[in-house]
Amino acid sequence: MEQLSSRFLVSKTSLYKDLDWIRHLNAEEKIELQSAAEGIQCLGEERSIQKTLFFGIMEETGRKAGGRWLAIRNLERTMFDEDICQVVDRTLTEDYADLTEGVSEYYLYSLRIILLIFLSRLRRHHHMEKDEDFLFNTIRYMETFDVANSMAERLGKELNLSFETDDVEYMSRQLFAHRITTQYRRTDPDHTRLVMRLIRRLEEVEKVDLSGDSQLFQSLLYHLPAMILRLRKNILVENPLLEEIQKQYSELFRIMWYVLSVVESEYGVKLNDHEVSFVLIYFQLAMDRVSKARNILVICPYGISSSQLILSRIKQFLPARDTIEAASLQKLQTGTLDNVDLVITSVDPGPIDVPCVRVSPLITDEDLVHVLNVYTSAVLASRQLPTTLKKLSAPVLASLTKPEWIFTEKECASRKECLDCLCAKLEEKKCVIKGYRESVFSREEMGATSLDSGAALPHADPDLVTTSTVAVMTLKKPVRWGDVQVSLVIMAAISQRDAGLFHNLIMEIYTLISDRKVVDDLVSVSDPSVFYQLFTPKGESNVF
Q1: Rounded distance, CA 456 to CA 478, Å?
Q2: Predicted pLDDT at 240
């Protein structure tokens, strides 16, 4: 502390405050701040350290007067080497201007800070660890691997830095996340014809229409010229996912060799597995967009052979377009499951937010039937749902309703007709007593129960309710409800003895219906059973 105080001409009190701020930043990423005679250092994963640095800079510069851009310019003079700052600026605004031209200023600002931190750490020999992720998640980021690889080569020469494969993969993920896409702006008739020919060849073999996929066209138009140049100069760029791709997409991998054979004959080059696998990624992602392929994990703790047995049997019964990947239980519990549609496992995986099927290690015919039933009832229905609905959860609401209390695509001409219809259902099932309907309309006269999102939440006196119930109605055509057009009605009939549930119920409902996009997506669900499943706690009712 004495040395730091003398070096930076600040008091120890100020230094202690700074260290407390650093500890605050480090806490979430589980980074240890270690003090020793040699100085103070952060111990933890490199990704976590760089992430903490990024958010620390964002937090610090966001408080400065004059705007964040000016603040970071002032801060970088003490944090980053001048040559790194100059090279990063030139890379983003000149060298790769054709890719960054249409990117928003916010994304470029964010990417600039990330690159400054990344290159500064690399200069100090801090390399990225391998990112353990599922293959179907990873290949999305590989769309920008070619750009990241060429960028790393250029930065390495200019700054005398050594990039490892995991460093390039990290850059690829950052480029992808910041919307740096492979848009080819120059026109070369030969390259255009080659791309169109390759797409047609794959369409003929796979019986799929990719002619309208502009993203595939642009990506290939950017990738192929650089690939041909590399092959002519015998420059090998290794795909870190090659082995996994060869296993997971073995059929498509063989097809890609056939499709790309025209490149060898027309350009006099010799292909290799790495280059073929890069092109495969673009086509696989394009086919996923067309066929809505599903991502399925097979979990078995008894070794690779058991997982492969389940994997091979499952692949015979599920659509060929689906991605079926073997993974460990640890990877399942620590990985990101946002893009996972189904888990097939021989052990209890614990609570997870996706449909899950238990099977025996030697998967039987009964297990296969079970898998198909869950795939049909849960996976297909879930994948058809809008993204906004896949993470909804309202356990209190789920406990108070059921599919027969959900009425979808009803045709009502007015607010009165909607209320009469729902009240009649409650009266018919003897959930309410005489006077309930009048109480509902009386409450409406005090002020419409509608929200700007297009939903309404009518309710009445709890003393007139005998059995707590929530009835839901969606409308084919919106009706006027006060000053709002309403297409979703949720009637909460809660008895006095269940009054303790009312607060949590209302909070859940408001969370669901406060967003117009969510309301519109809820209204689009026509199956009452699927509608009901949206409210059930994830990781419980969807584990089969």
Answers
A1: 11
A2: 87
Q: Provide the pLDDT for residue 539.
A: 39
The model's confidence at residue 228, banded by pLDDT at 50, 70 and 90, is very high
Alpha-carbon dihedral of residues 199, 203, 204, 206, nearest 10 degrees? 130
Enter the pTM of the model.
0.57
Residue 75 burial by CB count (10 A; 0-12/13-18/19+): exposed, middle or buried? middle
Q: Which of 117, 14, 5 is nearest to 72 (CA)?
A: 117
Q: What is the CA radius of gyration of the chain?
A: 29
Cα-Cα-Cα-Cα dihedral sign, residues 209, 211, 214, 217: positive
- Give CA–CA dist 528/321, Å, rounded: 29
In the structure encoding, which two tokens stand for residue 339, read together? Answer: 């893009």
Q: Count Cβ atoms within 10 A of the Cβ of residue 473 and give its class: 0-12 exposed, 13-18 middle, 19 or more buried.
A: buried
Mean pLDDT of 283-288: 88
Is the per-residue pLDDT at 388 higher than 70? no
User: Tokens 């898998």 map to which residue?
Assistant: 371
Higher pLDDT, 63 or 277: 277
Asked whether the beta carbons of 14 and 1 are under 8 A apart, the reply is: no
* Measured distance CA(532)–CA(541) in Å, rounded: 11
